[in-house]
């Protein structure tokens, strides 16, 4: 597979065949993101996409699930997605489902009829970067949607039969606002009912646009202890029945510390909360850690006062 950039997809997609259909992200303005800032966005030629399908077919591949990359493949025009899905049906008629990342504005750009046709052609899970539950935070981070926008567009995609999965980010609200964000985000998720929640706890690189706001004092990052407490409050408030049969799959990453909590709600909720309680108790006894690194190498975690390292 020819691939340009960094592969980024939800852990639930590790067994999927990843089919690149674009390079980068057509939005690419989120302040915390560095994944695609170095790339010039472009849709890949249909001939190149089909050549990859032919290559896998000739190699004997029979993917049951295909993940379309890169940053926000669902935001491609509906007609182009129809062409790509048609090629997939041609070469892999037994493919069960096609998944991809999406944005709220990408959903808004498609009619109800187009959403239904995409579902009929095999699109199932759409991963949306919800990130947080506070309106001012979404605006500050330059997300492509408001809370109201997200409610409306998620309702439309679910009415079309598509499945919504939420990317969130503990720490996105900054120092001192984690619990507030957790409570508003839980309220949002309990209404919109994602099937999966993936928490990529905030982890900043110096090249992220948000780093400038840290340097000038406009944004004070949360500590990892705060992120753990925010995550615990969120899981405490999530309604076990929001995702219907099979429950809600949750996977929470903390790249800067050795901690990860995952499971299915409601079945695993108790043990997940216990794991978080244990992690919180541990980090309450340690120096505050803030998850960001400086270029070009890893450095020790900074203290909360940022003047000490």
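^ structure tokens above, recovered residues below v
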């Amino acid at each position: 597979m020819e691939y340009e950039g960094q592969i980024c997809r939800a852990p639930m997609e590790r067994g999927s065949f990843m089919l690149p259909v674009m390079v980068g992200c057509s939005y690419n303005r989120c302040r915390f993101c560095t994944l695609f800032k170095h790339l010039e966005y472009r849709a890949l030629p249909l001939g190149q996409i089909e050549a990859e399908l032919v290559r896998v077919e000739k190699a004997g591949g029979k993917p049951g699930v295909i993940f379309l990359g890169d940053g926000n493949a669902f935001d491609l025009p509906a007609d182009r997605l129809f062409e790509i899905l048609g090629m997939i049906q041609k070469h892999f008629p037994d493919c069960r489902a096609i998944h991809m990342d999406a944005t709220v504005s990408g959903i808004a750009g498609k009619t109800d009829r187009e959403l239904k046709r995409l579902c009929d052609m095999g699109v199932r899970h759409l991963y949306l970067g919800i990130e947080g539950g506070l309106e001012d935070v979404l605006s500050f981070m330059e997300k492509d949607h408001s809370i109201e926008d997200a409610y409306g567009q998620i309702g439309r995609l679910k009415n079309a039969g598509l499945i919504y999965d939420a990317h969130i980010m503990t720490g996105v609200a900054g120092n001192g606002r984690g619990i507030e964000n957790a409570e508003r985000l839980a309220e949002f998720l309990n209404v919109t009912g994602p099937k999966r929640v993936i928490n990529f706890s905030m982890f900043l690189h110096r090249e992220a646009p948000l780093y400038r706001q840290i340097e000038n004092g406009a944004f004070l990052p949360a500590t990892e202890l705060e992120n753990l407490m925010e995550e615990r409050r969120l899981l405490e408030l999530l309604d076990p029945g929001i995702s219907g049969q099979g429950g809600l799959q949750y996977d929470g990453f903390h790249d800067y510390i050795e901690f990860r909590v995952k499971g299915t709600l409601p079945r695993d909720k108790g043990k997940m909360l216990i794991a978080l309680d244990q992690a919180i108790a541990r980090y309450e006894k340690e120096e505050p850690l803030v998850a960001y690194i400086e270029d070009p190498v890893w450095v020790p975690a900074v203290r909360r006062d940022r003047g000490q390292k």
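Residues 53 and 163 are 25 Å apart (CA to CA).
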